[in-house]
Amino acid sequence: MDLVHVLRKQFGYSSFRPYQEKIVTDLIKGRDVLAVLATGGGKSVCYQLPALLRSGMAVVISPLIALMKDQVDTLRSNGIAAAYWNSSLSGDEQYKVRLDIRDRRIRLLYVAPERAVLDSFISLLRTVPLSLIAVDEAHCISVWGHDFRPDYRKLIILRETFPHVPVIALTATAIPAVRQDIAGLLGLSDPSVYIGSFDRKNLRYSIVSKEDPRSQVLAVVRRHRDESGIVYCGSRKTTEDLASWLRTEDIDALAYHAGLPDPARRSTQEMFKKQDGIVVCATVAFGMGIDKPDVRFVVHYDLPKDLESYYQETGRAGRDGQPSECVLLYAASDIPRLYARIARENYDNEQLRRAAREKAGHLARYCESPRCRRRTLLEYLGEPYGKPACFSCDNCLHPAERIDGTDLSLAALSCVRDLEGRFGAAHVADILTGTTTPMIRKHGHDSLPWYGMHHGFKSGQWRDILTDLQDQGYLARGNGDYPTLCLTEMGESALKDCRRIIIFDPGRAKHPETEHVSCPGNQPEPGRQGLYDRLKALRNTIAGREGLMPYMVLPDAALRDIARKKPRSREALSTIEGVSRAKAERYGQELIAEVQAYASTEGHIREKPATVKKALQAKTKTRAPPGKTTDKDLFDALRTLRSTIAGERGCPAFIIFHDATLREMAKRRPTTSEAFLKIPGVGKVKLERYGERFLKVIRLGHSG
Ligand code: ADP
Ligand code: ZN
Fold it and tell me: Count of domains in the chain?
């Protein structure tokens, strides 16, 4: 069977992602599978495609109600009969699902683990043929994973009840102990195991020295106009302060943390999913249940807990495979503070404290080392990178210069040797810089010959040299409780032979504020931006009409392709990557009409606010004196325009302009961009985005 053909027709993709085809083939043959693929690796297709090719209904276990609905909506948008059954359904809806199951009208059924193990549910399943059982987020079965859920342990009953139905377990968790738990506790029988790479090639990692964090966040946000992103903050207060500051800069920013009331949290999530250009300033409470594919940036305003968390949190960017960036703001004082916190914290046992310290050490090295970030991250996750560098992270794009550092290195190595592996890098650096600290006085280390060797260097620069020497294998971390440094054999022999050592230039500027190469996905096709924007507006209208998230209608990349290729027929449209046959059928007419309308005007601005004009004229006729509308009428007309735009963008009206701003517009009646900009609540971005349309209505109001 030509699987690629089916993939193309059902999902609109022209090729498989790594491992997808193998997994699909195994499942079709009836074999159990354990699939460990990174976020964005395309796990869903792995079971959705075989579900369509085997007879019977597939049961998909999914832990999050919100995600179930999104998955089902996405499948339905591709014309696939899918349903979910969970506590959010009313009695009537549950009854309908039950009938649909009985009458074999469903190809994929999503359920929560608690329901999947109910006797009544299993009895129902016994009455219909099953194609496969998929257990998503399968790491929830393991206490070693980051999200243990006891209900997952009961799922083995499905395997026992349906021994001939293939089971696929899916997870993005890299830890080997978790893999073993999954296979054992789900009762997989001789599963084929596929472990994909955790390298997220489309993510660009960089670290910026935290100096003016708000402006630094703003710089990232501005690079991604109209795109969505998350800024992770260390405290609830920071999320709120930062979001409100960003709003004064005209950014659609919202705060999210566990302390906010439920409805507020839900609405923020919905808005983030539905709309472009929303920036959520959040604690790590935000993330689970968000599988928005087009998050273009993740900023860490504060240091993450550890590197694994950092990998998971940044992993929320770019699930659709398009270029996205991950920026971490890092202050030199962060790491000492982290150690101090670990020292204060109450751990159940000392081993946990040691583990925390160890993780802090890895995080520190990630932040401070001039080596490739991607390599460091992957090696930490246990995946050998195989190349010295990625050529896309900040350290690879702006490599620190390398110099002959023999003198400096030998001094550092000698100092470490004299300390006999009992002290950490910070203390070694203090000695080398000649700082007087209580520790140094206590141990008399100011009498070492290396004390104050290079007054010109700051402690951080010595730390970099030490990290570099560690990277090159001259130094290693000691095995004790504290992150101590000791000489390796290689270090010993380098000292003995006075070997020449090349190091990163310690005098380099640290973490230059990267003059970012903006993500290629961002750049509009020259001359095509107009059509792309119009297609986006159309997509949002369709999404609103059909109750779907915009990306479920069509992904950004597909819109960009349509704008470029301008297809004039459904056939041509269905060759675009990401357009399934069902979508070409359903939305083809509207999309092609938009393309044609654009081509006929080649980018001239359409006379859009016809409804607004009408509304305005209707009002003028009844109430206003000839020649000029009243403020109230103009205000109403502006509100109508605002609703139209909100509809197009699929967002709440207040995100466009607040009532107070519209009222000021109606009162002051600006007719030029400069005057418009002076209205409180109008910033540069909003002027650019909406100015022309609002000015037009105001001018109309003048002439009546
Ligand atoms: P995961 O669950 O592994 O994070 P998803 O199944 O949500 O990944 O897929 C991530 C994104 O990749 C989705 O937007 C999906 O539509 C897209 N995708 C999946 N498979 C392919 C493919 N073969 N070609 C192109 N895009 C794909
Ligand atoms: Zn790199």
Answer: 5
Residue 455 lies in domain? 402-504
The DSSP bridge pattern shows strands 82-85 and 130-135 to be unpaired
Quick check: 661 and 691 in contact, CB under 8 A? no
Q: What is the pTM of this model?
A: 0.71
Strand partners, 130: 57
Q: What is the pLDDT of residues 251-298, one digit of tens each?
A: 999 999 999 999 999 899 988 988 888 999 999 988 777 778 889 999
155 with 235, same domain: the answer is no
The tens digit of pLDDT for each residue in 612-638 reads 445 444 444 444 444 567 788 898 889
Q: Of the residues 546, 569, 599, which one is the last residue of a structural domain?
A: 599
Is 520 a member of any domain? no
User: H/E element holding 60?
Assistant: strand 57-61
Report the pocket of ligand 1 as residue ranges, CB < 6 Å: 13, 16-17, 20, 37, 39-45, 291, 293, 319-320
Q: Which of 599, 634, 657 is where one domain is finished?
A: 599
Q: Furthest-apart CA pair in the chain: how many Å?
A: 98
CA distance 491 to 475: 6
Residues with CB under 5 A from ligand 2 (ion): 372, 374, 389-390, 393, 396
Q: Mean per-residue pLDDT for 463-492?
A: 85
- The count of C-alpha atoms lying within 13 angstroms of the C-alpha of 92, restricted to the half-sphere facing its C-beta, is 0
Please give the pLDDT value at position 7.
95
- 491 and 592 in a single domain? The answer is no
Q: What is the pLDDT of residue 260?
A: 93
pLDDT of residue 394: 93
CB 624 within 8 Å of CB 630: yes
> What's the whole-number average pLDDT of the chain?
86
Q: Whose CA is nearest to atom 14 of ligand 1?
A: 320
Q: Can you tell me the mean pLDDT for 508-535?
A: 53
- Confidence band of 610 (pLDDT split at 50, 70, 90): very low
Q: Does residue 655 lie within any of the structural domains?
A: yes
Q: Do 33 and 157 belong to one domain?
A: yes
pLDDT of amino acid 602: 63
The Cα 553–Cα 475 span in angstroms is 54
E strand or H helix at 59: strand 57-61
Q: How far is the CA of 579 from the centre of ligand 1 (A)?
A: 13
422: Cβ–Cβ under 8 A, 6 or more apart, which residues? 478, 484
Indicate the residue type of 636: D
Q: Cβ atoms within 10 A of the Cβ of 328, count?
A: 27
Domain shared by 32 and 138, yes or no: yes
Question: 552 with 689, same domain?
Answer: no
User: Among 274, 255, 227, which residue's Cα sits nearest to residue 70?
Assistant: 274
Query: Residue with the nearest Cα to atom 26 of ligand 1?
Result: 13
Half-sphere exposure of 26 (CA within 13 A, CB side): 21
Residues 215 and 317 in one domain: yes
CA of 646 to the centre of ligand 1 (A): 29
In the block, which residue shows the tokens 């990290």?
A: 467
- CA–CA separation, 477 vs 523, rounded Å? 44
Q: How far apart are CA 95 and CA 89, in angstroms?
A: 9
Cα of 490 vs its chain's centroid, Å: 41
Q: Are 71 and 82 in contact (CB under 8 A)?
A: yes
Same domain, 41 and 130: yes
Query: Does some domain include residue 328?
Result: yes
Q: Ligand 1 centre from 21 Cα, in Å?
A: 13
Name residue 696's amino acid: K
Look at residue 514 and tell me if it is in a domain.
no
The CA–CA distances, whole Å, from 147 to 140, 143, 151, 288, 310 equal: 5, 8, 12, 10, 16
* Predicted pLDDT at 31: 97
Mean pLDDT over 34-47 rounds to: 94
What DSSP character marks residue 257? -
Q: Looking at ligand 1, which atom is closest to the CA of residue 291?
A: 7
Same domain, 45 and 191: yes
Compute the chain's Rg from CA coordinates: 29
CATH number of the domain enclosing 139:
3.40.50.300
